[in-house]
Amino acid sequence: MAHRVVIIGGGFGGLYAVQAMKRADVEVTVIDRRNFHLFQPLLYQVATGALSPGEIASPLRYVLNRQKNARVLLGEVVDFNIAGHEVLMKDGDRVPYDTLVVATGSTHAYFGHPEWSKLAPGLKTIEDATEIRTRVLLAFERAEKETDPEERRANLAFIVVGGGPTGVELAGALGEISRDTLRKDFRSINPAEANIFLIEGSGRLLPPYPEKLSHAAEKALIGLGVQTRVGAMVTQIDAEGVTVKAGDSETRIKSKTVLWAAGVQASPLGKLLAERTGVATDRVGRVKVAPDLSIPGHPEVLVIGDLAYLEQDGKPVPGVAPTAMQMGRYAADLIGKRQRAEAVKPFRYWNKGSVATIGRNRAVAEIGPFQFSGHLAWLTWLFIHLLYIVGFENRIQIAFQWAYDYFTFNRGARLITGEWASADEALGPASLSGRR
């Protein structure tokens, strides 16, 4: 009987692992709660109306339909039988394995304030993106019919918490929407008067990037009308805005739309796996793995992607998409070499570089020893993202949509979807929470 590999999670790590085993003598089962692979780096473009959900997601069954040694199960894993080498499903099924690969990623972290999640949605899923899109567009709609100047300003104030790549990209996109996309759409308001705040707790934006690029990104954001606040911590969020503390002073910013891009927490399966195996986790719940990505004492269990904690050269390996891709390929190679009784070298992350876009012709990039920003960095960002999008059709659709948006300044997916109250009701962020 062929070696049975079970992969939990169809994200970057899981998908790259199963595809790398295409010609291996294994039977691969991919389990996911969703029936699609999501290209998360472009979620912010769905959230800001530049792309539609279907353009950044591909059905897992379609992606793997030609891989005869792979099958897909739609379902939710609720427990592990480590001694019996079984995965327990929510519907009661048990899926046996010889090697288990856990790649369930991460979710939002609100630093001890879970109640903020209803007021400031994060950006990890398609539902998050469409909810953010609805909140942003409804803010302009509310402002259009608002007669009180103070309330109108609150509706036209947008706060992004977190100055990492996601926060920078969101804030830049909001700047473009208010100053370019919507400039002719309203009669009672001028969308360009929107106030966009980007709040970052550390001393500069894009902390993982070189200081030179952080400053370039901040300059580009200011050019789009974004007001940056570095060295500032959000201490309170409610339906009327946020309280920000910088040093010994506190500032209140009134806003009806707060978006969260400040922290991540490992998937809950990480904690469960730690309980069942006795392995340690870090402060955000990532599983501490051995150099070959296995759980100490359980070589048949591998953890990859955002769920894995591994140090390299004294620093944690970054939780980014390229890391998950490389870990997925490594896991597949390790499984094959174990079957052939070959020696396996420890996993080593190769940093190919980092790129973050701020808007049209604005981006920052670090590729090897080179650091650059502006138009060239933006073109580099376009090329890299098109290269890694799963599915030829999606690449063509996104390339066409980006070209159309670039020349027309339009964002064709500006749709208000889901449940929302009547036009006479003043919708605040709390009224939309939980609605998908």
Structure description:
- The protein is globular, with a radius of gyration of 22 Å.
- It has helices spanning 12-20, 43-47, 60-63, 126-145, 149-155, 165-181, 211-223, 268-277, 321-339, 375-388, 392-408, 429-432; strands spanning 3-8, 26-32, 36-38, 57-59, 70-74, 77-81, 86-89, 94-96, 99-102, 106-108, 157-161, 195-200, 226-230, 233-238, 241-246, 249-254, 257-260, 264-266, 287-288, 294-295, 298-303, 308-309, 311-312, 315-316, 354-359, 362-367, 370-373.
- The chain folds into two domains: 3-33 and 75-108 and 264-339, FAD/NAD(P)-binding domain (3-Layer(bba) Sandwich); 114-262 and 354-432, FAD/NAD(P)-binding domain, CATH 3.50.50.
- The model is unreliable at 421-436 (pLDDT under 50).
- It is built from twelve helices and 27 strands.
- With 436 residues, the chain is an alpha/beta fold.
In short:
With 436 residues, the protein is of the alpha/beta class. It contains 12 helices and 27 strands. The chain has a 6-stranded mixed β-sheet with strand order 5-2-1-9-21-20, with helices on one face. Strands 13-12-11-17 form a 4-stranded parallel β-sheet. A 3-stranded antiparallel β-sheet has the order 6-7-8.
